[in-house]
Specification:
This protein is of the alpha+beta class. The protein has one domain: Jelly Rolls. Helix content is 17%, strand content 34%. The chain is built from 2 helices and 11 strands, in the order ααβββββββββββ. It has a 5-stranded antiparallel beta sheet with strand order 1-2-9-4-7, with helices on one face. A 3-stranded antiparallel beta sheet has the order 3-10-11, with no helix packed on it. Strands 6-5-8 form a 3-stranded antiparallel beta sheet, with no helix packed on it. β1 and β2 form a beta hairpin. α1 packs antiparallel against α2. It binds fe (ii) ion. Fe (ii) ion (FE2) binds next to β8.
């Protein structure tokens, strides 16, 4: 599914071509996230062309909304835009597939976690991401994070995953109780 981007389709199409090429050329998933991060940083460097239409910049009824921009027909990857309300957080969750995240607008605060052998999670660092900054998710060791918009304005980030993420059963973690819940990403209707 390719969602029509009316402002500047060429930029998104070039990025999608780059991702396809990365999938063909990469020697490992670590190589994929490196290549896709470089491509996404280039795309985000062209934010002044406002290639992401306004309808993807506003969260819907929930604390944040995930809009599908492209889902590869074979389900090999997808590109989505996440729009966060001020102060909104995803909560701690894993991905089970590789991912690359880059900020399009606003500020986002990411905290990373790792599983510990005795059970539970430990904090494994974090980063404050400004527009153009990219980070990655790489199972099985580096795939758990929490994304928060710490500001009083909406934020928007572009997320690229190695599958149609809405079809991947994933885990949400409660740090207080250690409980896990199986969750599926939900795409906002456009
Ligand atoms: Fe995530």
């Amino acid at each position: 599914m390719l969602v029509k981007i009316h402002k500047d389709t060429d930029l998104l199409n070039c990025f999608l071509d780059d991702v396809e090429l990365s999938l063909k050329l990469a020697q490992s998933e670590a190589d994929i996230v490196k290549r896709v991060s470089d491509s996404l940083a280039l795309l985000l460097g062209k934010r002044d062309r406002e290639w992401l239409p306004d309808k993807f910049l506003r969260p819907g009824s929930g604390k944040y909304s995930q809009y599908p921009l492209y889902i590869a027909p074979a389900g090999t990857f997808c590109v989505t835009a996440l729009a966060f309300k001020p102060g909104a957080s995803t909560g701690v969750h894993n991905h089970r597939v590789w991912g690359v995240v880059g900020v399009y607008r606003g500020i986002e605060d990411q905290t990373f976690y790792k599983k510990v052998p005795e059970g539970g999670l430990r904090c494994a660092g974090g980063m404050i991401c400004e527009p153009g900054d990219c980070s990655y998710l790489l199972p099985p060791e580096e795939e758990i994070h929490d994304v928060k918009n710490p500001t009083g304005d909406c934020s928007v980030s572009i997320h690229v995953y190695g599958a149609d993420i809405a079809r991947v059963p994933r885990q949400a973690y409660c740090l207080e109780t250690g409980a896990t819940t199986t969750v599926f990403s939900k795409y906002e209707a456009i």
